[in-house]
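W.,

You were right to be curious about this one. When I first looked at the sequence I had no strong expectations either way, so I just let the prediction run and decided to look at it fresh. Below is the sequence, 316 residues in total, followed by the output.
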Amino acid sequence: MTFILALALHHLMDITKMFSMLQPREDEEDNGESEELNRAVSEDDYETLDNLLSQDKYKRFINRRSGWGVPSTPLRLAATWGCLRSVKVLLAHGAEVDSLDVKAQTPLFMAVSNGHRECVKALLDAGASPIGSIYNNCSPVLIAARDGNVDILQQLLDHGAETNVQARLPEWAANSVACSGPLYLAAVYGHLECFKMLLLYGADPDYNCTEERVIAQIKEPKTLLETCLRHGCRSNFIKLLIDFGANVYLPNVTVDETAPRSKGLELLLQARAHPKSLMSQSRLAMRRLLKQAARTPALGELEIPAVLANYLQHQP
C-alpha cells in the first residue's frame, strides 16, 4: 500500500511539474503581439516575422502559448504546418526548441507527425531532443515508424533516438502493447524500409523491447516473428528478422500439416532446420560488437571492400 501511494505521488509530482511548465507568465501583458506573430507564421511570412521579432515587445512573446484549441508557441505552429522559413527565423531569434504544448508535444513531435522532413532536420540541427518529451506517452520514432517516413526515421536515429523505444506506460499497465515498439509498428503497417532501417540501427529482432522485467510481466509475450506471421506480413519481413539474428526457436508456432504454408512460415521452418552459414554468423557477431559499443551505424565507415561493406549492411 505504501509503495502504491509513493508511486501515485511520484506521478502526481510529474503531472504538477508538467502543468507548471505550461502556465503562461502572469507578468506578460499581451496586447495582440502573440496574434500578430501567429498570423505571420500561419502565412509563412518569414520576413514580417523576422521584423516583428527584432522588436522587444514582440520577442518577449516568442515562447508564449496562445490560440484556440491547443494553445501553441509560434514554433509549434510553424512545425505543425511545415513553414520551414518561419521555423528557421524563430530558431534564429532564440525560440525554445523543445517547448511543450498542453499535450506535452514538442515542435519536433508535430513536425514528425505531419511528415515535414525539412522542418524535422532544422529542429534536430538546432538541438531538439529526438526522443520528444518525457511527459508524453508517445515518441517521434514511434510516429515515424507507424507512418512509414523512412527519411524522417533515419534523421531521428542519426541524432541518437532509441530504436527499441516503447510507449511510456506505468509498469502495472505492461501488456503486449508495451512491447509494441517501432519495429512492431513498421511491420503491422507494412513499412518494409522503416523495418529494415530500425534493424540496421540495432533494433532487437525478437521482442523490440530490451526491458526483461516488462517482458516478464506479460502473460504471453509475442515475438516479432509471431507478429509478422499472424498479421500476414510479406516474407521479406520474416527474412530480415532471420538475417538480423532473431531466435527462430523462440516463437511458439503451431504448424498444420494439412493447411498450405505461407512463404514466411516456410522461411522460418527452413531456418530452424538449417544452421546459419559461417559468413552470416560472422556478420551477426560484428553487428553485436558494434551495438555493444553503441556504434552500429559505423559499419558504413569501415575501410573494407565495397562488397563486404554491403554484405555487413544487408545491401545487395
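Here's what jumped out at me. Residues 1-13, 17-27 have pLDDT under 50 and may be disordered. And, maybe more interesting for your project: Residues 41-136 form a domain with the Serine Threonine Protein Phosphatase 5, Tetratricopeptide repeat fold (CATH 1.25.40.20).

Coffee later to discuss?

I.
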